[in-house]
Amino acid sequence: MTARLLDALVPCHCLHCFALEPGSMRLGLCSACRCRLEPVESADRVACELCGRALHGRRSRAFPLCLPCRGRSSPIDRLFAAWSYQAPLDDVIRALKFGDLAYLGGHLGDALAESLPTDLTVDAVVPVPLHWRRSWSRGYNQAAEIARALAGARDWPLRSVLRRRRPTPPQSGLDRTSRRRNLRWAFAVQRKATRSALRAQRLLLIDDVYTTGATAEAAARALKKAGVRWVGLAVAGRTPRFRG
């Protein structure tokens, strides 16, 4: 009742179009802007299971990998992305990471849980960690906020088994090669997480955005090195690949 009263007296504005709408705004967006969110997969569009690139043609459902991914190995066994990372989702992610709106992580986690396959089973949900300095300056880890809501919605355990061994410069503005070099040996398994407890586990990594996959692959590689059998990745946004 208190929340409804606050919504009526002090309505929130949409993070994208700044429109006022009575009632709580899911994802911080008005109903019109939520309709503009573009799912990565739909009834008439299939995405590559490793990178999220759109697949075309009638045979795409029988061969769920794009041509580049068929010729490479990845520590990530399956990518799940809810939406394409473009307007208005980009405003939501920026507000979560830099606008001190941690509650948006819960909204994204609930929506991501709804988009995952109903038959998916994992042993635990693992957020991609921030270095302690960045986590301290921001006040929270946005991936952990998403992971907490997702784990609660799907009734899966939440485990923080990864740590960031060293601070790394921001990934934005770097090309794929520089991103991979930037994250080399950046992740390790927590000392309290023994290899015997991780061996043969199915873990689902959680992050906010997938661009080149360098961060997620570095984290997944550390888990595989510790004996994890299967590593999936679930993200709220997947950066679209434009031609030309």
How would you portray this structure in words?
With 244 residues, this protein is an alpha/beta fold. The chain has two domains: 1-36, no CATH class; 40-238, Rossmann fold (3-Layer(aba) Sandwich), CATH 3.40.50.2020. 34% of the residues lie in helices and 16% in strands. The protein has ten helices and eight strands. The strands form three sheets. It has a four-stranded parallel beta sheet. It has a two-stranded antiparallel sheet with strand order 1-2. α5 packs across α7. The longest helix is centred in the middle third of the chain and has 13 residues, at 103-115. The radius of gyration is 18 Å and the shape is globular. The chain starts with a helix and ends in a 6-residue tail after the last strand. The mean pLDDT is 87.
Strand content: 15-25%
Low-confidence stretches: none
Order of helices and strands: HHEEHEHHEHHEHEHEHE
Number of strands: 8
Structural class: alpha/beta
Topology:
Elements: H1 2-9, H2 31-34, E1 46-47, E2 54-55, H3 67-70, E3 78-84, H4 89-98, H5 103-115, E4 124-127, H6 132-138, H7 142-154, E5 162-164, H8 176-182, E6 187-189, H9 195-198, E7 202-210, H10 214-225, E8 230-238
Parallel strand pairs: 3-8, 4-7, 7-8
Antiparallel strand pairs: 1-2, 5-6
Which characteristics define this entry?
Rossmann fold, 16% strand, 2 domains, 10 helices, 244 residues, 4-stranded parallel sheet, alpha/beta
